[in-house]
Each structure stands twice: as structure tokens, then as C-alpha cells.
Design brief:
heterotrimer; A: alpha/beta; Rossmann fold; 4-stranded parallel β-sheet; 8 strands; C: alpha/beta; 5 helices; 4 strands; globular; disordered C terminus
Chain lengths: 381, 665, 147
């Protein structure tokens, strides 16, 4: 390796993009050793941080795009560095030079044009809500806005989750409605990919839509939307109460408004989605719901709660190719089966999507089922 | 009333003069009524600086002095003494804090100079209201209380006792010895801990000047320097130690067992027990939670076998009171619970050990007689020692625990010595080998073939779990189900390592004792942000506290190795001794005083006083302050509805003048 | 030029004053608006001190003591705490906003906290603007202390 000269202007610029903690890192390697990639094809996040600290070439390399922003490193970092912000800021800086990987560009283009990353048409966004008979949000009639993520609008598997959740909410007497086509993607993935500009315009447009409709409380189907509304929309003046679907279901059961009664007779394990668990500390609500379902035997996987293994779909990885066998979701299903689970339950459309895909790669696809928590609850009603 | 005031503005090198225009401040002071002279000087606290002040007092007959310099907590005493030597009552000195609370914290010379002027104006106005006061003297009881019988407390107690001071040594556990008694060897010299500690324990136990109170805890402290009154709870141990001969027959015959605290739960002990063989006192106590007789009235085997008739099931806790002149707190530390970092598997994976468990495992007197083996009885072929378990970690403890690097080296050495075939890895962030002979020890361990991996151990998994979790390609060859896999990045190689081992040893952070907060309150010793007891000054008063007469030593003040702990034990003893040999001590003259003619006899003050220093004279219907008990907090002064109580040196008039001065510009 | 409030701080010797010194030793910069009176215990702070400060031109008053339970004099700070609501009511009756008086527990090791509290409080008082002159004049003249 040739000698290099530090280029600290790069580090200064990164800090302006939001990498405030950059210099706090003391290079202990906990991050690299905690990263889910360490089980397969390691991502050396520590080295990226080191290169960024000195502004040396390589900080912007391919590894940067491997990060799923799962926060396994961040919750363990002994210096309390917001590592996900470092990754996001670095991507944002690179993004401005147009160096975003090819595979992410189509998703970004779709978000910019149609308000969703799935290349679906904006006017088709509400097709599923109309056929499911979900009313438009009306502050006089409805307590909650149901924000179901873009995925159910354009992906059949995800739609089953949304339908199930609607069934559960109705059974529990929750008064909720949806926004029309003026609703756009929350922008979580867009921001993690590094497109701050598009994130800001999505945020502003959703903030205006919330405001116009008179929204005060939101039920988010996806932990990604939940995280963004709750933690990042304050910048756009949004002050709404945000709940994840699992929290609502827990409350409905606790209050006796929802009575799961049909027996499931299955052994279920819970996969903690990164943005529900590590990012937002919601670990107990979904477990409480599962324990209230008749006929469910609950088994914990080895990696659970803060140690949960990422499905591999966050941080833009949803739109990037990962080799079979190296996908985290490929590793996760055998782990679930090893603890005797016949159902892997989770609470995120990205996770469900990743796991369903991995299931197809199993020797026997029917060895395990993948279900969203709402789907399991709906089955018991 | 004073009217000839001298003002001295200190440059403190550039510490003050670099930010405050000292000449401008001195000029300003010259214009305040009552100021007869105003000077600046480079270092007022220096001998020439003090001489300057003394000369002015003598020549110009100054009747008050204002020194604008560093914090009064730093040099008020210095200037009071200087004034006194020159014939001015020390209470006629007032300090304006223009360094810590002005030049060091203010941005902009203009703003700093303005603030300094206001502070000087306030000090001058206050000084005009000062009254001469006399210091009072009280006798010091020539005895000491040492709390905690670890190596710090033992050392302090022995040093004091050897000097002829009567010492009460209180220990919560049934024996003195502390953590050091659990160790087998000590770094870097590898001398045997018991060999060097046991003689000291025995000496402390048999010293004519030491009254040992084990299985006891301090419950209440009152009084003040020179005369602390301390209530000590002597917990019931159900064995009369005056009668007990320490023959041990009761222990042998006792049919009931419990986990041994001393052995970290790796072995059992009896319900009537000595924590360890060399315990001092070498007489047992009965664990009421394990004793069948105390739980349900059946057994009494020990009674049957005790020829000395020392077993006494009727024993109750009792509280003893002692009066001492000074106190040494040496309450030590506790190790962090490794379960707080679930990724490392402690408490879940049987192959993961805490440092103290490893100490016992390796100790010749321990549960395996010093044979290093896993819980299932295998000799480990490979061991990983993980550094910084909860230390240097924002999620747990921000500080470095200071000794872990070194004892990790010691463990590595002991492993290589006892199990020459075993592979030993140290996973570290930085090697901190700061003491005498420490770096040399590190090199020795490298020579002994220990592998050092620069990268924190991030995850530990069981072999069986690992196989179920990772692709077949990531399973190290020959990994057995009962083994462990350590995941870490070697940051020098920039490569993730999966290291299969038979045993993992964690190095849990030093923590303040679980009840440090309560103990701190009891002894009026404050704690730092890290939770450890706070010394009066980090460099110049390392074993003193803000509570005069109370000293701290050892790991209760912060993580420490044995040499530093012993040094502090001796240091605290010498501070205590220097206090005691003075025979008497000057105490605050700034007490409260009830002005008879104004007191309405309402008794509001009496209930407020935390020291019961105010009494009520029934005949005259007036309250009166006992000067010897008053500590000068001023709470009664603020609360008196008739404004009848005068706070000496902190009177309304003095404070009002100070307020006027502060707001005069 | 923006309004620069004058604030008087009554700090107890053992905790907050020492904490303020620590901020100094650690060279933490903060707003110069607070001028400090050292008292041995926050329990010494007579309500008349606070009124006196407002009368003499203060726009805000800060009281600093040891954390509950850590008082050097066992419980002087709790007595201060009990006085605060009464004092605030009194101030309100006189037309002085509650926000001009602040009680904070700052320990000897909390230099950083001292810095934060000072900066926050200065901004808080700055936002309230100067204390009304008429209000100031109407404050009781009880500055001729008996002692």
C-alpha cells in the first residue's frame, strides 16, 4: 500500500452532512465484530470510519453500501457513536456526486416520480384500500390514520399483511382511515441511501398531507415508517402520536377489545425487526401479543431482542442483490427451525419479503411459514 | 466599621490577565468608596505577593483586604493566614473569584473585565461589613474509625494502630481481607496474595490498638471532626466469639449447605461457616437463611458438638456506639455483572467466566484446588480473555478500570504455566501497562507465547448455537458443541476472526458498591459522576474529602491496583494521624447567634437545625445556639420570622452589600 | 444590541459553587451574565435576598444547591425547596414572572451541568426581557437588615 496523506477536509465535510460523532470513535472494533456481515462476508465498518476520520480514499467504497443500517454496531458502540448517521452522512455526501449504485437509482427515480420506490403508479396507490373498503381519513370520524407503507399498494404478499391488519383493527373497534394518493413514501430508505433532498421533499409533502387531513395519531404498519414519523418528522413540523401496529394490537388485547379465540397449534418464534427493536426499543409488545394467542408455543431464537439478526433488507439493501447463502434472511430461517419453530413471525413488510424469498431457497419450502404478527392475530379471530 | 480597604488584583500569570484587563479592574476598584489602595500583582499567592499584602496592612493600617484572584476554595486560607500574620483578623479578608468563575469561563475580554469589576465591587462592599471573628478550638478524640476491611482498610488501621491510635475497624463481611483475599497471585511480581495479605490480616486481628468489628455495618454518623459519634450494627452471627475456640467441629458436622459467596458460587459452604480458611477472625457465623434451626426450629447439630457452648441462637443484632476523632472510608468496589452484556454469553454459556470466578478457579485453596477446568471438568485447550468488559463504554462505565489489562496478563501467564498446551488469546483495545514493572510483564507474556488480538471481543456463542446460525463455511474445523466461538475483528489485520475456545474469561468493570450513594450520605462524602467517592482535590488532596476529618482510601475512590490501594491506605492513615496529633482543631467561627432582644421565642429554628444545636431556655423563653454544635449552614437564620438570628460572616448586611455591589454596574 | 440580563446566583459552597469552579477548571465557556454570591448552604438563602436582588437590578435569580440527599448540612436544600413555591407566589403577586427564579441541584462534579444551566437560564431570562422598572421600585425596601 502506498503512503497516504490525510485529507481532513473530507472529515470536516462529512461532519457537515451529519457525521457529528466521527472523531469519537476509538477504533475498538466492536462494530465490525457485531455486524451481521461478520457471520458471512464481513463488512469492515471500523475501517470505513478510520478512513473517514483521516479523509483517506476508501471510505466511499463498495463496503459503504453493504450496511443495512441495522444498528447492531450502534447499540454496542462503547463510545456511543451514532454509526448509522455516519453511514447515512457518508452516503449523502457521495450521493451528491451521483455515485449512488446503479441498482438503487430506479427505486429513487420511482420515489421522485410516483412517491413510492416500487415503480408503481401514484394513482394506483389506493387501489387496495378501496377494494378492502377502508375509508379515507376523516378527523371527525376517525381517531387514527392507518399508514400502511407503500409496499401493500404494489406487492401482493405485503397486501395480505395490510388486509390482515385492517381486519384486526376493525375487530378491535379501532376507528381509522387512510390518506389518498397525496400520501407518499415516508422516505426512510431514501434517506439511508443518501438522498437527503428527496427525503426532505417527501417529508414536507407528507407533513402537508397530515396537516391538511387533520391527523393527530398514526398507526404505522412498517417499523420503517414508524421510525421516520416518530423520530425524524419533527424537522418538518409534524407533531403526531405514532404507534406501531404491534403496540396497538397489544393494547386491544390488554383492554379486552380484541379476543383471539381460534387455536393456532403452532410453534412460533419472533424475529425482531431492526427498526422496531434496536432502533426504537419495542421488544415486549409483539411478544405479549404472541403469548395471548391460543395454541401458540413460543420459542426464542439465539439472536433475539437487541442481538436480533437483521433480515438484510434495510438501508437500501432491499433493492440490491446479495448472493444466495450470504443473505441474512437465508441464515435466519435455519436458526428459527433449529429452535423448533414452524412459524417465523415478524412485524415488518421488508422482513416478510426477505424471508419469503429465502424460504423459496429451502430444501422444503413448507418447513417453515413466514407471517406478520397481524396475520397471526387475524387467523385467531 | 472598616473603611481602609486594600484591593489586590492577581494576574495569575496569564490565567487571569490573559482574559481580564487587570489594570482596568484595579483602577476601577480605586474609585470605590472605602478603598485606599489598589494594586495588581503577578502571583498574589506567591511569597512576595503575600508579603506585599502584609506590608500594606502594617504600613497603611488597612482594616480589610480584598483579593481578586482564584476561587476562595483554593486560597482563602492562604490570604487569611497572611493577614493574620500581619496583625489583621483573618475574617477581614474577602476573595473575589475572578479566575474559576470569570477569566476561565468567559468569552471576550470586555465581558470578562466587566464581570471581574462587578465581582470586585461586591467583594469591597461586603468587606466593608465584615466583623473580626475568633476561631474556636475543640479537642480531638485520639481514635479512628476505619470502614472496610479490605487491603486499604487493613493498611490504614495498622498504620494508625502502630502509631498508638485506638482504631475501630468495621467490616461488613464475616472476615476481613476483601477482594485481595480471593486472589491467588498478584501482578506483575506474581507473589502469592495470601502470603502477603494473611500476615497483615492476622496483625490487624490481634493488634492491641485495633478493635475489630466484622459482620458489622455503620448505621449512623453524627458529630463532626474531632468528635464523630458512630452507631455500628453488630449483626447477629449466632456464635459467641468470646467463647468460640475456632475448632471448626461445628462446620464439619453441619448438615446444611449454601452457595459460597467467597467462592463466587463455584462451591458450597455450610450453614455455619468461615468464608475461607484463613479468615480473620477465624471463628464461624451462622447463615440464618441456610440454617435449618433458624428457619424451622430443627437440627441444633452444631450446639451438640460445640464443647465451648458458643452457639447462641438467641443472639440479636445490637447497635454499639463509638466516639472517634477521625474516619477512614475504605469500602472498596464491586465487579460489574457480566450479564449486562448479553452478547458475551455470561450466565448463559457455562464456559464464560467472570474474573473473580477465574481467580477462585485458579486458587490453590479454591473449589478445584487450583486446577483450571471448565464446569464440566475439562482442561481447556484454548482460552480467550476479553478486556474492557463494561469499562471505557458509554453504555456501562465511561472510565478505564485500570487493572484489567494487568490481571488479564496474569491470567494468561497462569494458564500458560498450568496448561502449557493451552492456546491463550487476549482481546484488547489498548494495552494499558502503566505501573512499575508492568510493561516488562507484558513483554514477558509475549515471550510466553500468548496471542494478543487488537480488537474488542464482540460476541461469544456456544458451539452448538454457532452451527445452527452460520453458513457451514463459517464453522471452524473441528468445532465441538460444548466449545465457544469468539467473534472479533483484529483491527491490525482488518479481518474478522472466529476463534473457537473452550473457555472465555471476562474482565468486568470496577463499579462503586451498590450502596455507595447511601454510604456517601451517611458520611457526608460526595460522589463523582462515575459514582465513586470524590476526593477533595484530584491532585493535591487525593484522600481528603469535603467533610473534614473523613478520608477515603482504595477502590471506593476509583478503580485501583493493590500498590495504589495500599499507598492510599497509608496516606489516609497519615492524614488522620496528623489530625489526631494536633490534639485540637480550629473550627468554623461562622456560626449562628441568637440575639436575645429580638427572639420572640417562637421555636421555629429549633426543629430546623439538623445538628440539634439550638436549645430553648424555658425560663427566659429564648432560643440559644450551642457554638460547639453549630456548623454554620444558616438555615435557621433564613427561617427566623423575627430576623433574630445572626449568621456570623454570612449576615444579611454582608450579603445585601454583596448583592448591591454585584448589581452596581 | 440585544438585551443582556443581569442575574444573581446564590450558590451553596459545597456543591454548586464547587461545581462552578470545576466548570472553570475545565475551561467551559458560558454566558457572563450570572454573578455569584457564595453561601454555605442554599438553606441560608432568605427570601429577602431574592427580593433584594430584584430590587437592585437583577432580571433573574438562580439558586444552586446540592442534590436532594447530598446536602452537606443533611437537609438544608430541602428547606430551600420548600420555600420556593411560596417565594414564587410572592413574586407573582408583585408582578415578577415565575421564570425569573430558578432552583437547580448541581453537584461538585457537575461542571458541565453548571455550564448548561447558566446558558439556559440566561436565554430564558433574556426571552422574558428586562424586569419592569415599576415592579422593581415597588419592591419592599427591606434592605436595612437587622444584622
Amino acid at each position: 500500500m502506498p503512503a497516504a496523506t490525510p485529507f481532513l477536509e473530507v472529515a470536516d465535510a462529512l461532519k457537515e452532512y451529519g457525521a457529528h460523532d466521527l472523531d469519537l470513535c476509538y477504533q475498538c472494533s466492536t462494530c465490525t465484530g457485531s455486524c451481521p456481515w461478520s457471520f458471512v462476508e464481513p463488512l469492515n465498518i471500523r475501517r470505513l470510519i478510520r478512513l473517514a476520520q483521516l479523509g483517506l480514499p476508501g471510505y466511499e467504497g463498495e463496503d459503504l453500501w453493504k450496511c443495512t443500517t441495522c444498528a447492531s454496531c450502534q447499540v454496542r458502540c462503547p463510545r456511543g457513536v451514532a454509526i448509522v448517521d455516519l453511514v447515512r452522512s457518508t452516503r449523502a455526501m457521495i450521493g451528491e456526486t451521483g455515485l449512488i449504485p446503479q441498482s438503487l437509482r430506479s427505486a429513487l427515480g420511482s420515489v421522485k416520480g410516483e412517491g413510492n420506490p416500487w415503480n408503481g403508479k401514484r394513482e394506483e396507490r389506493n387501489a387496495w384500500t378501496e377494494s378492502a373498503g377502508i375509508p379515507r381519513f376523516d378527523p371527525k370520524k376517525h381517531e387514527y390514520l392507518l399508514s400502511a407503507c407503500c409496499m401493500p399498494s404494489y406487492d401482493k404478499r405485503s397486501r395480505r399483511i395490510a388486509d390482515a391488519l385492517w381486519k384486526v383493527l376493525q375487530a378491535g373497534g379501532v376507528r381509522a382511515g387512510v390518506l389518498g394518493p397525496e400520501e407518499s413514501c415516508c422516505g426512510e430508505a431514501v434517506r439511508k441511501i443518501g438522498d437527503e433532498g428527496t427525503f426532505t421533499s417527501l417529508g414536507k409533502s407528507n407533513a402537508a398531507a397530515f396537516e391538511k387531513a387533520g391527523v393527530r395519531k398514526v398507526i404505522a404498519l412498517s417499523p420503517h415508517c414508524y421510525h421516520t414519523f416518530k423520530n425524524e418528522y419533527a424537522a418538518f413540523g409534524v407533531k403526531v402520536e405514532v404507534h406501531h401496529a404491534s403496540e396497538i394490537m397489544q393494547r386491544l388485547i390488554f383492554e379486552g377489545k380484541l379476543k383471539p379465540h381460534k387455536k393456532l397449534d403452532r410453534t412460533v418464534t419472533w424475529h425482531d425487526p431492526c427498526y422496531l427493536g434496536r432502533h426504537n426499543d419495542i421488544f415486549d409488545a409483539p411478544r405479549a401479543v404472541l403469548s395471548a394467542l391460543p395454541g401458540v408455543t413460543f420459542r426464542e431464537m439465539f439472536r433475539h431482542k437487541k442481538q436480533s439478526l437483521c433480515c438484510g433488507g434495510g438501508g437500501g439493501r432491499m433493492w440490491m442483490e446479495t448472493k444466495r447463502g450470504e443473505r441474512f434472511s437465508d441464515l435466519r430461517l435455519p436458526e428459527a427451525m433449529a429452535v423448533g419453530a414452524s412459524v417465523l413471525a415478524t412485524g415488518c413488510p421488508y422482513c416478510v419479503n426477505m424471508f419469503e424469498d429465502s424460504r423459496l431457497g429451502l430444501e422444503r419450502e413448507d418447513a417453515i411459514q413466514v407471517r406478520d404478527l397481524a396475520e397471526l392475530v387475524a387467523e385467531t379471530l | 466599621m472598616p473603611y481602609k480597604i486594600g484591593v489586590y488584583v492577581c494576574h495569575c500569570g496569564t490565567n487571569i490577565a490573559g482574559m481580564v484587563n487587570v489594570e482596568e479592574v484595579a483602577d476601577f476598584a480605586r474609585g470605590i468608596p472605602g478603598v485606599t489602595l489598589s494594586r495588581t500583582y503577578k502571583f498574589m499567592c506567591s511569597d512576595p505577593g503575600q508579603a506585599l499584602l502584609q506590608e500594606d496592612i502594617r504600613k497603611n493600617g488597612l482594616d480589610a483586604v480584598v483579593v481578586a484572584a482564584c476561587s476562595p476554595l483554593m486560597h482563602e486560607r492562604t490570604f487569611r493566614r497572611a493577614a493574620q500574620e500581619a496583625g489583621l483578623n483573618p475574617f477581614l479578608v474577602q476573595i473575589a473569584n475572578i479566575r474559576e468563575q470569570c477569566s476561565w469561563v468567559t468569552e471576550g475580554k470586555g465581558a470578562a473585565t466587566e464581570k471581574a469589576k462587578a465581582l470586585v465591587a461586591a467583594a469591597v462592599r461586603r468587606a466593608r461589613e465584615h466583623q473580626p471573628l475568633e476561631m474556636r478550638r475543640v479537642e480531638i478524640t485520639p481514635s479512628a474509625l476505619v470502614v472496610g476491611g479490605g487491603i486499604a482498610g487493613i493498611q490504614a488501621a495498622l498504620d494508625l494502630a502502630d502509631a498508638g491510635v485506638q482504631v475501630v475497624l468495621v467490616e461488613r463481611e464475616p472476615s476481613i481481607g476483601g477482594h485481595m483475599a480471593m486472589f491467588d497471585k498478584t501482578f506483575p511480581t506474581l507473589d502469592c496474595a495470601a502470603c502477603i495479605l494473611t500476615p497483615k490480616m492476622v496483625a490487624a486481628g490481634s493488634h492491641p490498638n485495633i478493635k475489630l468489628m466484622t459482620w458489622s455495618e455503620v448505621e449512623e454518623v453524627s458529630g463532626f471532626v474531632g468528635n464523630f459519634k458512630v452507631k455500628i450494627r453488630r449483626k447477629a452471627g449466632y456464635v459467641d466469639h468470646d467463647k468460640c475456640t475456632g475448632c471448626g467441629l461445628c462446620i464439619e458436622k453441619c448438615p446444611y449447605k449454601a452457595d459460597s459467596e467467597f467462592e463466587q458460587g463455584l462451591a458450597k459452604r455450610k450453614a455455619i461457616y468461615l468464608p475461607f480458611a484463613q479468615a480473620v477472625p477465624n471463628k464461624p457465623i451462622i447463615d440464618k437463611n441456610a440454617c435449618a434451626y433458624l428457619k424451622n426450629g430443627k437440627c441444633r447439630v452444631c450446639v451438640k458438638f460445640c464443647e465451648a457452648a458458643a452457639i447462641d441462637f438467641t443472639q440479636q443484632d445490637r447497635v454499639e456506639e463509638v466516639t472517634v476523632g477521625t474516619i477512614v472510608l475504605a469500602t472498596g468496589f464491586q465487579a460489574m455483572d457480566g450479564r449486562r452484556i448479553p452478547e458475551l454469553g455470561y450466565g448463559r454459556l457455562p464456559g464464560v467466566y467472570s474474573a473473580l470466578e477465574f481467580e477462585r478457579l485458579n486458587n490453590a485453596a479454591g473449589p478445584t484446588n487450583g486446577v483450571i477446568q471448565t464446569r464440566d471438568g475439562r482442561a481447556p485447550r484454548s482460552v480467550a480473555i476479553l478486556h474492557c468488559t463494561g469499562s471505557r463504554d458509554e453504555n456501562h462505565h465511561r472510565y478505564c478500570s485500570r487493572v484489567c489489562c494487568m490481571y488479564a496478563l496474569k491470567y494468561a501467564h497462569l494458564l500458560r504455566e498450568k496448561l502449557p498446551e493451552a492456546r491463550v488469546y487476549n482481546f484488547y483495545i489498548d494495552m494499558r501497562c502503566f505501573g512499575k514493572g508492568y510493561e516488562e510483564f507484558y513483554k514477558r507474556l509475549q515471550e510466553e507465547g500468548v496471542r494478543f488480538v487488537r480488537g474488542k471481543g464482540a460476541q461469544v456463542w456456544g458451539g452448538a448455537e454457532w452451527k445452527a446460525m452460520v453458513p457451514a463455511a463459517a464453522v471452524p474445523e473441528g468445532l465441538e458443541d460444548h466449545q465457544l466461538v469468539v467473534v472479533a475483528e483484529d483491527s491490525l489485520l482488518q479481518q474478522v476472526l472466529h476463534v473457537p475456545v473452550d473457555m472465555v474469561v471476562l474482565t468486568p468493570a470496577f463499579e462503586p458498591r451498590f450502596d455507595a450513594e447511601e454510604v456517601g450520605r451517611r458520611f457526608l462524602v460526595s460522589r463523582g459522576a462515575d459514582g465513586f467517592f470524590l476526593e477533595q482535590h484530584p491532585k493535591l488532596a487525593p484522600v481528603s474529602t469535603t467533610n473534614e476529618g473523613v478520608f477515603i482510601a482504595g477502590a471506593c475512590q476509583g478503580p485501583k491496583d493493590i500498590p495504589d490501594t495500599v499507598a492510599q491506605g497509608s496516606a489516609a492513615a497519615s492524614k488522620a494521624l496528623s489530625l489526631i496529633t494536633r490534639k485540637e482543631i480550629e473550627i468554623e467561627a461562622t456560626t449562628a447567634h441568637v440575639q436575645d432582644e429580638l427572639c420572640s421565642g417562637c421555636r421555629t429554628c429549633i426543629g430546623l437545625c439538623p445538628y440539634n444545636a439550638i436549645t430553648f431556655d424555658e425560663a427566659r423563653k429564648r432560643a440559644a445556639v450551642n457554638d460547639a454544635l453549630c456548623k454554620g449552614c444558616g438555615t435557621c437564620v433564613a427561617a427566623c420570622p423575627s430576623s433574630a438570628i445572626l449568621a456570623r460572616h454570612f449576615g444579611d448586611r454582608q450579603i445585601f452589600s454583596e448583592i448591591e455591589g454585584l448589581l452596581s454596574l | 444590541m440585544s438585551f443582556e440580563p443581569k442575574i444573581v446566583g446564590f450558590l451553596c459552597n459545597w456543591c454548586t459553587y464547587t461545581g462552578a469552579d470545576l466548570a472553570g477548571t475545565s475551561r467551559m465557556k458560558y454566558a457572563p451574565n450570572v454573578r455569584v454570591v457564595r453561601v454555605m448552604c442554599s438553606g441560608r438563602v432568605d427570601p429577602t435576598f431574592v427580593l433584594k436582588a430584584f430590587r437592585e437590578g437583577a432580571d433573574g435569580v438562580l439558586l444552586g444547591g446540592c442534590h436532594p440527599g447530598d446536602c452537606h448540612y443533611q437537609s438544608g436544600n430541602m428547606k430551600t425547596l420548600r420555600r420556593i413555591p411560596l417565594l414564587k407566589r410572592l413574586l407573582k403577586d408583585m408582578g415578577i414572572e415565575e421564570g425569573r427564579l430558578r432552583l437547580e441541584w448541581i453537584s461538585a462534579s457537575e461542571g458541565e451541568r453548571y455550564q448548561r444551566v447558566i446558558n439556559e437560564f440566561v436565554e430564558q431570562v433574556r426571552a422574558l426581557g428586562p424586569l419592569n422598572l415599576e415592579v422593581r421600585k415597588a419592591l419592599p425596601k427591606k434592605s436595612q437588615a437587622t444584622a
